[in-house]
Amino acid sequence: MVTGANTWIEDELAGCRFGDERLERRLSTLLDQMAGAMGDSIPLACQDWANTKAAYRFFSNDRVSEGDILSGHFAATRQRVAATTGPLLVLQDTTEFSFQREHPEKIGQTCRVNSGQDKDGRFRMHTVCGLLMHASLAVTTEGLPLGLGAVKFWTRTKFKGTAALKRKINPTRVPIEEKESIRWLENLRRTTELFGDPGRCVHVGDRESDIYELFCLAQDLGTHFLVRTCVDRLALDGNTTVDAVMEEVAVQGVHAVPVRDAKGRVGTAEVELTYRSLRVLPPIGKQKRYPALILTVLHAREREEPADRPRIDWKLLTDLPVLAPEAAIETLRWYAMRWKIEVFHKILKSGCKVEEARLRSADRLVKLIAVYSLVSWRVFWMTMINRSAPDIDADIVFTDREQQVLDFLVPDKAPTLTGSNTLGIYLTKVAKLGGYLARRCDPPPGNTVMWRGMARLIDITLGSEIAPQLVGN
Q: Which of 74, 87, 209, 256 has the smallest number of CB atoms closer than 10 Å to its CB?
């Protein structure tokens, strides 16, 4: 049974199909426990040996997969997407989870890093034990996270350095199906099929997603993409490159963007905008397989190099038309939304503390991360809905008992009319439980104070429910 602030779990898991009702009930109970003890260990979240043992059995069950755990959430995301209008940004990114284990071979490897020099001055290389996760997060153009649309987990059983591979083979000649980068295409295809409205989706990725095969797949599926490009491809008739063409394009607008320096001080930077639609050719080794495409190139660059931070220099590539400075600014704003998936990953690591988990094998850790992904999305959603739709009814998130508890713990400074309290008011009260000061100069509450406040609210609400049974009404 889910409790109080975790009643959202019922809706989020309604689409799960395990084929065994006992597994569905266990997932509901487990998600309720872990959402109420975010960042704590499994034994602390489960509270007793019976529930802890049941959790371990769930994660070790061969009949349970990360796809089963997330299937209900994917269905709920599709419903939330259908309930919104306008462009939908599908943010893709990869993150790594590192672990320390006596037997790292049971989990796998992610990369090799330089761990310093030995006594003789020779560099020592250290292989990192861990997992990789590639996720697609659907957000509105206002930044509200609607949920995950696709997730792929993998690990490397034997690490092969990219530099070593380049000595033996040209990476551009390797089919995309034989590369790890195929994950970008797989997630694009899955989310496009899940949401069912390709023309509405804009798939956003960083420089790692600058893959020509992805551009062609997006065209085949009738969907759109917006990526930060790092490859200077052949353009026009093949006798020039994209960068050479863009150097001849005059500045078409100037846009002021807020920035922070290394000390966190807020300032303003002016970037010059240049954009053009042109014919882009595939890599030479793949021109027989893929066609040339008409794409829009958008550059945003500061005029001078700042003294206290790196210069802003964005080179974006998209199949969307950019015909005016206003459209260029809107496209830049959409790409800036890509940071939302970085925030989601931060909640997973800093809030849920995934990397502190002690499960010993990759398959069990993957299932745990899938459960934590639901918790992280919920925290992120509450943080952002407080900014995008603070005036809606508080009943959409909080029960009557929870609202009573919040009113008692964080009373309003001024009397309010009955029924006039909105979601924004109660989410601010939750943030105050988590340490938010709510001063006039403070920005809106962030994810950290939200997950701290929700954990306290769950505990206090539970105490208020059992207190009458202990001391009488």
A: 256
pLDDT in tens, 161-216: 555 555 666 666 677 888 889 999 999 999 999 999 999 999 999 999 999 999 99
Over the stretch 139-172, which tens digit does the pLDDT of each residue have? 999 999 999 999 999 987 665 555 555 566 666 6
Question: What does DSSP assign to residue 209?
Answer: G
Q: Residue 354 — φ and ψ, nearest 5°? A: -55, -40
- Write the DSSP string, 24-84: HHHHHHHHHHHHHTTTS-HHHHH-SHHHHHHHHHHHH-TT--HHHHHHHHHHHHHHHHHT-
The DSSP H or E segment spanning 138 is strand 123-140
Q: Which residues, 6+ apart, have CB-to-CB distance to 322 below 8 Å?
A: 275, 277, 296, 298, 328, 331
The pTM for the full model equals 0.89
Q: What are phi and psi of 161, to 5 degrees?
A: -70, 140
For residues 277 and 294, give the distance between their C-alpha atoms in angstroms, rounded to a whole number.
7
Query: Domain map of the chain by residue range?
Result: 226-334, 392-473
* C-alpha distances in Å from residue 14, one per residue of 21, 32, 33, 205, 396: 12, 14, 18, 30, 17
For 226-334, which CATH class?
A: alpha beta
pLDDT per position as a tens digit, 305-328: 887 788 889 999 999 999 999 999
Helix, strand or coil for residue 428?
helix
- Distance between CA atoms of 89 and 203, rounded to whole angstroms? 6
Nearest in space to 100 (alpha carbons), one of 347, 352, 346, 358: 358
